[in-house]
Amino acid sequence: MKSLINPRFAAVSGLILLAALSRLLPHPPNFAPITAMALFGGAYISDKRLAFVVPLIAMLISDLFLGFHSTQLVVYACFMLITFIGFRLKDNKSVGRVATATIIGSILFFVLTNFAVWAFSSYYPTTTAGLIECFTAAIPFYDRSIFSSMMLNTFLGDAFFTTIFFGAFVLAEQKIPLKVRK
Predict the structure, then answer these.
(1) How far apart are CA 52 and CA 26, in angstroms?
(2) Alpha carbons 13 and 35: distance in angstroms, whole number
(3) Distance in angstroms (rounded) separating the CA atoms of residues 102 and 100
(4) How would you classify residue 30: left for phi > 0, otherwise alpha for psi between -120 and 50, otherwise beta?
(5) Closest alpha carbon to 58 in 82, 79, 27
(6) Measured between alpha carbons, how far is 13 from 143 in angstroms, rounded to an integer?
(7) Would you say residue 56 lies in a domain?
(8) What 8-state DSSP symbol labels residue 13?
(9) Which residue among 26, 80, 83, 173 is least crowded, i.e. fewest CB within 10 A of its CB?
(10) Residue (of 79, 85, 80, 81) closest to 98 by Cα position
């Protein structure tokens, strides 16, 4: 029987937990490792159940400190969908595929979570005009600072953390192959 706790699994889980805990540190709005955690878990955790569970537990731990909100279940559902996208990277983690998955994950998260705000909150009327207003309010206006844009921060954060996750793991596999490989 194959042991669940092996050095590779421990390394992947440790990176995901560290990323989740990094959400507790001061950072620009929406510059967070959420998409990266889900993609990385889907791409590198071989047991599909654990690929969902490990990142979700890490998110839950950080959310215990950050707090919960009315669309939290939608956030977690998006997280799981992004993990599915990560499954598609398992056999081919090329830069182009990882970048494409990151962009798709960012867009998916933006669209679904903002749709949930419109559908499940009283902030906007549940009309087509209300939906347009919700998405318009969610699409940032650009200011003099790159960090003034919430949506841009989401893309930058996703790209930054995905690069860190996948890049660090590739380097680790090259430097300590016996401890990180399957």
Answers:
(1) 26
(2) 15
(3) 5
(4) left
(5) 79
(6) 37
(7) yes
(8) H
(9) 26
(10) 85
Given this model, what pLDDT does residue 102 score?
93
Q: Is the pLDDT of residue 60 over 60?
A: yes
- Upper half-sphere CA count for residue 171 (Cβ side, 13 Å): 6
Q: What is the pLDDT of residue 151?
A: 59
Per the structure, the complete domain to which residue 173 belongs is given by 7-111+152-180
Is 65 contained in some domain?
Answer: yes
Give the amino acid at 90.
K
Note whether 142 and 149 are within 8 A (CB): yes
User: Does residue 50 sit within a domain?
Assistant: yes
pTM of the model: 0.80
Task: For residue 170, give the amino acid letter.
Answer: V
pLDDT at 4: 58
- Give the lowest-confidence range in 57-61, 150-154, 158-162: 150-154
pLDDT band at 146 (very low <50, low <70, confident <90, very high): very low
According to DSSP, residue 142 is labeled P
Number of domains in the chain: 1
